[in-house]
């Protein structure tokens, strides 16, 4: 197979500040492979809405597309010329036959999580499944320019419940620490569009774009990160999210919470232990926070680490992988 075009949904009206990373990945794929990016075709939208079983074998060229949810069922996309990459996958064993049927004509199905890749392999997936791991768009590559840190702690996006409980206790005991978080009060708010506040007093406004998101995150010395599914209801799936790579690119110390047993496939793949142990107690959290506040990030190590995870490198690996698929 040889990717000849990319289908995108970037003109969708339902978006948030995190979703555009998908479009950034698409842009890098397009640049590295020198292929065009096209909007998801109207005919596919119509056929899918009608739920028709028409056997339409288009597109006629090998086409890459990201699929945001493993439960998405788009009949026209079950084609030998489609290369789907599944971003969010939470299909339990009873749902796997339906998933297999949705992709029965795809010559290869890519998944973004090492956890999901092993899960499908361990369940004897009849499809050809390959790993196309989360990456960091090259535009965020670490440069030699020092990042200015204005705040001690910056929390963006969804928070790990355990780490957040420790954070609340820590800032109450250390009122001199500056912190930025979504919502005015320490009780966390799940809404991603709420304004961010400095120490619950100064309103810094919302994060309306990727630039806002990355700019704010890079101004913090420390942040928190928990694996999706660890202490959260995601049906036994333990996923790393690309926000971890964004945190490293922003030059933040990161205090982490993640599985270290057989469920820790993503943490092992992304070498979480190089940045933080999995913090399980408040005492561990307090010691790690005190240490992070008094030391600088090793940006040389951070830069070296990210080189293997830039999207351009992933695309080169994908190109080699697809050569063996006919």
Summarize the model shown:
By secondary structure, this protein is α/β, with parallel strands linked by helices. It is built from 11 helices and 12 strands.
Q: Roughly what fraction of the amino acids lie in strands?
A: 15-25%
Report, as a whole number of angstroms, the end-to-end distance: 6 Å
**Could you estimate the helical fraction of the residues in percent?**
25-40%
Give the strand order, joined by hyphens, for the main sheet: 2-1-3-4-5-6
Backbone structural class: alpha/beta
Helix and strand string, N-terminal first? EHEHEEHEHEEHEEEHEHEHHHH
- Average pLDDT across residues? 90
Largest sheet: 6 strands, parallel
Key traits:
single chain; 326 residues; six-stranded parallel beta sheet; globular
Topology (elements, then pairings):
Elements: E1 5-8, H1 21-33, E2 37-39, H2 42-50, E3 63-69, E4 82-88, H3 96-102, E5 109-111, H4 114-122, E6 129-131, E7 151-154, H5 161-173, E8 179-182, E9 196-198, E10 202-205, H6 210-218, E11 220-226, H7 243-249, E12 253-257, H8 265-269, H9 282-293, H10 299-307, H11 311-322
Write up this protein:
There is one protein chain. The chain has 326 residues and is of the alpha/beta class. 32% of the residues lie in helices and 17% in strands. The chain has 11 helices and 12 strands. It has helices spanning 21-33, 42-50, 96-102, 114-122, 161-173, 210-218, 243-249, 265-269, 282-293, 299-307, 311-322, and strands at 5-8, 37-39, 63-69, 82-88, 109-111, 129-131, 151-154, 179-182, 196-198, 202-205, 220-226, 253-257. The strands form 2 sheets. A 6-stranded parallel beta sheet has the order 2-1-3-4-5-6. A 6-stranded mixed beta sheet has the order 10-9-8-7-11-12, sandwiched between helices. The radius of gyration is 21 Å and the shape is globular. The termini are close together. The model has no long low-confidence stretch (mean pLDDT 90).
């Amino acid at each position: 197979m040889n990717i000849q075009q990319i289908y995108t949904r970037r003109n969708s009206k339902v978006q948030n500040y995190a979703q555009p990373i998908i479009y950034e990945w698409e842009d890098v794929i397009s640049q590295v492979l020198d292929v065009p990016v096209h909007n998801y075709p109207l005919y596919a939208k119509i056929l899918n809405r009608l739920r028709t079983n028409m056997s339409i074998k288009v597109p006629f060229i090998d086409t890459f597309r990201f699929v945001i949810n493993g439960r998405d069922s788009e009949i026209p996309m079950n084609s030998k010329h489609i290369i789907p990459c599944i971003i969010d996958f939470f299909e339990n064993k009873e749902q796997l036959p339906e998933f297999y049927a949705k992709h029965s004509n795809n010559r290869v199905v890519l998944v973004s999580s090492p956890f999901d890749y092993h899960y499908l392999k361990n369940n004897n997936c009849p499809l050809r499944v390959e790993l196309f791991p989360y990456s960091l768009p090259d535009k965020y590559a670490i440069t030699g320019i020092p990042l200015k840190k204005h705040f001690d702690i910056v929390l963006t996006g969804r928070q790990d419940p355990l780490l957040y409980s420790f954070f609340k206790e820590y800032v109450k005991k250390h009122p001199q620490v500056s912190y930025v978080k979504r919502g005015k009060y320490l009780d966390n708010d799940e809404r991603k569009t709420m304004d961010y506040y400095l120490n619950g007093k100064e309103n810094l406004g919302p994060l309306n774009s990727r630039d806002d998101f990355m700019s704010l995150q890079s101004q913090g010395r420390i942040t928190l990160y928990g694996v999706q599914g660890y202490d959260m209801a995601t049906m036994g799936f333990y996923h790393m999210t690309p926000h971890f790579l964004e945190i490293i690119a922003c030059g933040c110390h990161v205090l982490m919470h993640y599985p270290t047993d057989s469920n820790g496939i993503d943490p092992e793949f992304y070498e979480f232990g190089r940045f933080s142990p999995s913090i399980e107690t408040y005492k561990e959290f307090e010691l790690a926070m005190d240490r992070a506040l008094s030391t600088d990030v090793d940006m040389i190590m951070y830069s070296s680490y990210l080189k293997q995870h830039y999207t351009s490198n992933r695309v080169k690996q994908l190109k080699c992988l697809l050569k063996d698929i006919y």
